[in-house]
Amino acid sequence: MQAYMQMAGWEGLAVFGVALFLFIVVGMAMLGHREPCRGESHNDYFRLMVDAAGEGIWLLDDSANILYANHRAAEMFEIATDEMVGKTLFHFVDGQERGLAESRFKSSRLGRDEHFELRLRKRDGESLWVLVASRMLVGEGGKTLGTLWVLADISDRKERERFSGHLTQRDPLTDLPNRALLFDRMVQDIGRAHRYDRHVAVLFLDLDRFKQVNDRFGHAAGDRVLLEAARRLASRVRRVDTVARFGGDEFVVVLSDLASPGEADTVARALVDLLAEPFAGEGGECPVGVSIGIAVFPKDGSSPSELLEKADAAMYLAKQAGGGCYRGWPGS
């Protein structure tokens, strides 16, 4: 069943949820047509049946209080069933997800079947991602018996998705943002700057004498220089700024939310000094350095590609000046 749900996605959960609901409801109806054995009750059969389910099950009242929880639900939250019963379902909902949980619960109370992902919290506060299938249970005469939630643990899948997304947006060597994530952040930074009349500076960096490091000390030493350069750059900028590896020995620093373009010069000067310090290598010190080109939104361009192109051109002006310096886009 779990393998089927992973392959089928939402449709698999929907079929599974409806099937389980029908299983429980039909099972209850069947129990109503036979006499329990000595020492048994219809309640005993119902609890055994629900506790045998491979997914967590909650029965909720009109106020979203948990009337019943099966053993699997208790295992998922690492809490005893009697401690879970009586608490509201929102006790287990991640704070950022409460609005979604409230909306879906109200919708199911209106008779709609709901199927959605939700981040919950275990007893110790650890995240628990679940796929939820919910349905209102109605008995004879239209009496509402409660709302049933079936919870399928998808934490492992969400972690794989997060890791996969991280890999597609990060440079594998330095773990800095790659071009795709860089462009995405630049779009957001430019949008905010446009709304609030601020500036965004794009610094295009190219390490000086990096080829000599590879030729003299080997590519492993070159990788160590890149890692150290990435660390130094990240240590100098603010949390709201972006340091990305553009490719090879090229980096891009995006300074967001600047009050004036002159702030970029101050940072560029500091980065030139920072990368002028020798890099330690197994065969000795590696003198490198950096050339930096600067382009600023809005006066030098209004799009990520335009700003990067002009910052790159300005970087070559710094190279032509001998390296170890920065230059702005002509006219800046």
From TrEMBL:
The chain crosses the membrane at residues 12-31. InterPro entries: DGC-Regulatory_Protein, GGDEF_dom, Nucleotide_cyclase, PAC, PAS, PAS-assoc_C, PAS-like_dom_sf, PAS_fold. One of its GO terms (biological process) is regulation of DNA-templated transcription. Residues 198-331 form the GGDEF domain. The keyword Transmembrane helix applies. Residues 42-98 form the PAS domain. The keyword Metal-binding does not apply. Residues 114-166 form the PAC domain. It comes from the Bacteria. SUPFAM superfamilies: Nucleotide cyclase, PYP-like sensor domain (PAS domain). This is Diguanylate cyclase with PAS/PAC sensor. Keywords: Membrane, Transmembrane, Transmembrane helix. GO terms for molecular function: catalytic activity. Pfam families: GGDEF, PAS.
